[in-house]
Specification:
This protein has eleven helices and four strands, in the order H-H-E-E-H-H-H-H-H-H-H-H-E-E-H. The chain is mostly helical. It has one domain (2-181, 247-259). The chain has a two-stranded antiparallel sheet. Helix 6 packs across helix 7 (134-161) and helix 7 (134-161) packs parallel to helix 11 (236-259).
Length: 262
């Protein structure tokens, strides 16, 4: 019970910090909307229809949702570095809760915030001609949370090994933007150059964005956003399993890394 209370306290603290930071709140949705309405609208006429019933703007809409969740959860590890620099982390680590609870609370906090931001982007679906039912939204919530939890755990893991804010921000930019752009968020996954195809397949974000796109746009055997791995066309559940395995591994490593903090 004490460990659950510790997880809740760490989670609740991160939620409060996000809620009271209005600039962060509004800035977190401004950037993805810029991509959606400027980048999407600018290329939609040139790209034309990418599949039956949807154009380029509608195609990248699920990718924007995934990008929002990915970037928010991945960057949340910065709170670990911040807390270390200002001495709060040392106080947490000597508290009567396990370090596993601290790592889990941090990952859950980042996943909750990122999922909420993804939900906000869903509200703009009618503006680009995407129709979402209540069932579709309910199906998207666990997918967004799984992606956020997986990448949030990865961000927390990296934050436990980085000692300064400057180094963390540089590392995040070096990793985050390639992960976004090589996840299939902005382009179809068919007929890619061989080197890019390899990078897309080893990118964990690919297996988080693809299920979101399948739920929003519909699953079809010949869809341009389907993923094939070793000649096998992955189903929605295959992609979820791969992402869940990655997320579990990152969370366990983050817990182990927290346990080795001085």
């Amino acid at each position: 019970m004490n460990q659950l209370r510790g997880i809740y306290t760490i989670w609740y603290r991160d939620i409060l910090r996000f809620w009271h930071d209005k600039l962060r709140f509004f800035g977190s949705i401004t950037f993805p909307l810029l991509f959606l309405f400027v980048f999407g609208s600018g290329l939609s006429a040139r790209m034309g229809m990418l599949g039956e019933g949807y154009d380029f703007t509608q195609f990248i809409f699920p990718g924007i949702i995934g990008m929002t969740v990915l970037m928010s959860s991945f960057m949340s590890g910065i709170s670990v570095v911040w807390d270390r620099e200002f001495g709060f982390l040392k106080e947490v680590l000597v508290a009567p809760i396990s370090r596993a609870a601290v790592a889990t609370g941090k990952a859950l906090g980042s996943a909750t915030i990122a999922s909420f931001q993804g939900l906000l982007i869903l509200a703009f679906a009618p503006l680009i001609g995407v129709s979402l039912s209540i069932g579709t939204v309910l199906a998207l919530l666990p997918l967004m949370f799984l992606l956020a939890m997986s990448l949030g755990s990865f961000g927390v893991l990296l934050a436990t090994r980085i000692r300064s804010m400057e180094a963390f921000q540089a590392t995040m930019q070096m990793l985050m933007f390639p992960m976004v752009f090589l996840s299939g968020a902005f382009f179809p996954l068919q007929d890619l150059p061989q080197w890019m195809n390899v990078l897309v397949k080893v990118n964990p974000a690919t297996y988080g964005i693809a299920p979101i796109r399948q739920v929003v746009l519909g699953a079809a055997p010949d869809a341009i956003y389907n993923i094939s791995l070793f000649g096998h066309a992955l189903t929605l559940w295959n992609e979820i399993a791969i992402l869940a395995a990655f997320g579990a591994a990152m969370l366990l490593l983050a817990i182990w890394s927290f346990g080795n903090q001085a």
